[in-house]
Amino acid sequence: MCYKEYRVQNAPAAAYYIPNFITQNEEEYLMQQIYAAPKPKWKELAHRRLQNWGGLPHPKGMVEEPIPSWLQEQMDKITTLRAFEDKIPNHVLVNEYLPGQGIMPHVDGPMFYPTITTINIGSHSVLEFYTPLQLHEEMEQSRSLSMRNIGSLLLEPRSLLILKEDMYTSYLHGISQVTQDTVTQDMFNFEQCTPMLGDVLTRGKRISLTIRHVPKVLKAKLVFGRAR
Ligand SMILES: O=C(O)CCC(=O)C(=O)O
Ligand SMILES: [Fe+2]
Predict the structure, then answer these.
(1) Ligand nearest to the CA of residue 93, numbered in listed order
(2) Which residues are CB-neighbours of 63 under 8 A, at least 6 positions away?
(3) pTM
(4) Could you tell me if the ipTM is greater than 0.95?
(5) Best exposed site among 6, 83, 107, 196 by fewest CB in 10 Å?
(6) In terms of DSSP H, where are the helices of 65-132?
(7) Which H or E element spans position 148?
(8) Ligand 1 atom closest to Cα of 50?
(9) How many CB atoms lie within 10 A of CB 62?
(10) In whole angstroms, how far apart are CA 86 and each of 2, 43, 47, 58?
(11) Atom of ligand 1 nearest to the CA of 161
(12) pLDDT digits (tens, 9 = 90+) for 208-219
């Protein structure tokens, strides 16, 4: 199977959405492993908390760290879909969102270019997309965010999302800080999802596993210091 079969037709180039990419058992297993991590593995942010696996990405390069097998299994499945073409993913960001939490619109930048893949577990969420500000608008009072919204993707639990091309490089993505979402035609992929138009979905605790390929890696240097 190739990821290209799952293209979201109504979205700009290019989004791919795979419902039920993992089973309920796999979802529970991932949850267990994520919550088995020691407390310092969590980094607390204002509106979410996260775990970083595989090394700390840095513009100068990432010093790679071993990835646990419970994550590697899922990364291998994504590799099989050829989501990273001839590359293999080497980094995972685990984000936890409570109902009402989200993430500000942003682009992921050059460090992970050209592919973002995300496994969703626990609850649904809605990823919103926005046109970037034009150069002249950065000086003026910019257009409101809602005017820049071009649509969204409904991310069901156990699904996999793949973003490439303009959906990676050009449009901003973010998650609104709300506790409920209504299924509308603004959701590019609603036809690929189980809920029906008009359904109101209440958010629960959602975990996203953002799996990416960091091209620039540094080999860990062995430094021999003299013992004092
Ligand atoms: O949780 C998500 O699906 C989005 C996370 C995200 O955009 C990021 O970590 O860059
Ligand atoms: Fe992002």
Answers:
(1) 1
(2) 55, 56, 217, 218, 219, 220
(3) 0.94
(4) yes
(5) 196
(6) 69-80
(7) helix 145-148
(8) 9
(9) 19
(10) 12, 32, 35, 22
(11) 3
(12) 999 999 999 997
